[in-house]
Each structure stands twice: as structure tokens, then as C-alpha cells.
Amino acid sequence: MTFQYYSLEQYNKAMNLKNKGLGSYHIAKILGISRNAIEGWINQGRKPYHFSEKRIAAQTSLENIERMRKMNKITQPKACRISAEMRTKRLPESAKKISKELAYILGVCYGDGHISVKQRRIILGVTDQEFAEEFKRVLEKWSGFKARLYERKPRKCAYIKINKKQYVVYIDSKEVSNFLKKFNSSLFKKANKKAKSAFLKGLFDSDGGVRKSKFGLYFHNTNYGLILLVKELLESVGINPTSSTSKTTKIGPYGGKKILRFDYI
């Protein structure tokens, strides 16, 4: 959730409009501010977060300072240990060779997963618990690092309506994120059949599915280079897919982009 900053000037304007007889609905419209915030200011005696005397007094109280000291004694050693592990623990050399585990991880990351070099993190968020647990197992086996799995409520989104809880898997490592980000996926063209199949499995687990209207599977993506690689790998293992191109709706992160789709029966 994004934190919204409100200034003291906005608060004063809202209070002036209240004194003129306006209600929260009209004040929110005039100032372009959330009605909930206005309600808190004019009806509940609150002030913007950074200017609340009650909050400032609570934070600077001796009780709160002592509470924070106790928390730091517990959390700081753990944070230092995790930080040291991220800096010093190295990816085994054997993990840098093409294998079924590496192929599957990259397939998932090219689909629903995400590789963030800036955050030093590999992350996957899905509603399928079995998929999340399998990705965690393979990720730990390949890297030797401890992966984390937790549940979260679905995020509110203007273009996706989903009520299922999500399962998030992630691993923190600068070396792992750099290695996966820079990996040349075209090397899978010369890989053995098991590695090719694992890479395709990861992709289809993420961006593939079963067609309802026909018997068969499909895979779609906006990355044309990835689509061509998938086509070549499928053909190399004896599957000849049919391809088509379609445009997405203007809603969502891929709004208006072309999607290339492969189907095979």
C-alpha cells in the first residue's frame, strides 16, 4: 500500500472549508484529497500523519524509546547475520552449469517470476500453492540458499479481479540475481533434452495453460525473441506448434501490446 503524504497547508484549507459549512464530500472534491482523510480531519480531530501531536509525543516518549531498544537487541543480530550471508555466501560453481533445475528456474522467471538485480531478489507470486512450493524446492536445491515462502492477500488491481490468496516465494542474493539476469537463454538450444523440457515446463507452468475450447496446451508472451526460442525448443523435442498473433485489450500492464501465441494438440 502506498503511503500518502498530506501537508499542513492542505489540512488548514480543509478546516477553513469546514468552517464555511462544507461537508467532507465537497471538501474532498475541491482539494482532490481522499474523503477518508478529510473525515478524519474535520470529524475525528486528527491531523496529517507528520503533524500529529499525539503521534509525535508517543514516538518521543521514554516508554517508546525503551521499547525500540529492546526490539533492536532482538532483531539487529538476525539482520546482521542475514546481511553477512547475502554478502559472503556464494553460488556453487556446479549451479552455473546448465541443469534441469537451472532450466526450470529460468523458465519460471521468464514467465510469472521476476529477477530484480536492484533488490537482489528472485521472486514469484502465484495463487497455485503447489506451483509455489515446487519452485521453492527447486530453487533451494539449485542454489543452496534458503528460500522463503509466505501467504498474502490479493492486491487490489484495477484490471484484475481476484479473491484468491497469493503464495510468494523469494530468495535474496546479489550473485544469484546477477547470474540469472545475465544468463544467455539461447544456450538451451544446445542443451540436452531433459534441460530443454525443464525450461519449457517452467515457461508453461507460468505463462501456459490448457485450452478450454480444444484439446491442447498454449503459451503466450509479448517477448518475440522468447517466443521464437520456445518454438525452436518445442520443434527440437518433436512438437510442432501453430502460432498466431493477437492484441491485448487496453487494460492492464500489457495493454495494447501484441501477444504471440503457440498452440499444440
Q: How far apart are the termini?
A: 43 Å
- CATH homology superfamily name of the largest domain: Homing endonucleases
Q: β content, as a range? A: 15-25%
Secondary-structure-based class equals alpha+beta
Structural Rg:
25 Å
Q: Quickly give the CATH architecture of the largest domain.
A: Roll
CATH class of the largest domain: Alpha Beta
CATH topology of the largest domain: Endonuclease I-creI
SS field, number of helical segments:
10
Tell me roughly what share of residues is in helical segments.
40-55%
Characterize the main sheet.
Answer: 4 strands, antiparallel
**Dominant shape:** flat
Number of domains: 3
Q: Can you tell me the residue ranges where pLDDT is under 50 for at least 5 consecutive residues?
A: 250-258
The averaged pLDDT comes out at: 80
Give the topology string: H per helix, E per strand.
HHHHHHEEHEEHHEEHEE
By oligomeric state, this entry counts as single chain
Number of strands: 8
Cross-sheet strand order for the largest sheet: 1-2-4-3
